[in-house]
Fold this sequence. Notes:
Blueprint: H1 2-32, H2 36-71, H3 77-106, H4 117-151
Amino acid sequence: MSNFLQYAGLFLLGVLAGEELIVRYGLHPALSRLDDHAHLVARQALVRRLRVVVPIVMLPAAALAAAILVTVAGPGLAPRWAALLAMVAFLLLSFLGTVPINIQVGGWRAEAPPPGWQAVIRRWARIDVLRSAAATAAFLFAILAVAQAQAS
């Protein structure tokens, strides 16, 4: 059962890291090249879609990281802890950082955004760099944990 949990966790953390990297370094740089109205319409559409899709991966990945720490014994304890801590950082950055901004952006009128909206988007981007790094780190630590367990 512990092998299944480790591989399921590895899969979900990999999907999450990949999604976060594509959004951070693929989609959002492309959005920034659009005119203001198109940028906001596209950003709002992404928020509506990703607020459903991301939690479907994010929450089970976090739960599995915790379950793996509790149920898996042997080599790889340090990277298992590191993966869980990276997931906690990801969740905190999400729920305290990007999610409130996404809710705010979702309420804007794209044809008349509020003054200073670009500063809000820049703040979101700074937080998202940390978020995507945390998701990627969680995945890498999970890989190390499985590698250490398999090596013994």
